[in-house]
Write a structure and sequence with these properties.
150 residues, Transcription Regulator spoIIAA, alpha/beta, 5-stranded mixed beta sheet
């Protein structure tokens, strides 16, 4: 049962809580505010060989339903305390796939062990700084100031 649950991890697509700088699941809180041009998400488990492919499919599927309006994908890693050697390539593949569609990718709130692995594998060169302090709101604001949606 644990393996099945891990293999089919929930990917929450997020919106800003009205009046706050925090984000939560749009499916559970439809009154959350969507950020134009930004697809924010949170994988609610570690990123492992069991779930890497299903997470990738969920994100790319959601990107397709957005109809070309997304220019930035932000992955909040606060609920992914561990990324294994299949999870990291999945994030790299996701970044490459998004880049092919002219969509930037950023990471937010990564745990120490996760940050270390992703940096060691060179992912930081693709997705900008990986740290624990940067929130989804910070990433969105910084992206809008630097590049924005074109």
């Amino acid at each position: 049962m644990l393996l099945r649950r891990a293999a089919d991890s929930h990917v929450a697509f997020l919106g800003r809580i009205p009046g706050k700088r925090r984000f939560s699941d749009l499916a559970q809180h439809p009154d959350n505010e969507r950020t134009p041009g930004v697809l924010a998400l949170r994988v609610e488990s570690s990123l492992l060989y069991l779930n890497a492919e299903s997470v990738l499919r969920a994100v790319l599927g959601r990107l397709c339903t957005e109809g070309g309006t997304v220019c930035l994908v932000v992955c909040n890693l606060s609920t992914s305390p561990y990324v294994d050697l299949a999870g990291e390539p999945m994030l790299a593949n996701l970044s490459d796939e998004l880049a092919n569609h002219h969509v930037a990718m950023r990471l937010a709130e990564a745990h120490a062990e996760t940050r270390d692995l992703l940096r060691a594998e060179g992912l930081e060169a693709k997705v900008a700084t990986i740290d624990r302090f940067t929130s989804i709101a910070d990433v969105g604001e910084q992206f809008q100031q630097e590049a924005g949606c074109r």
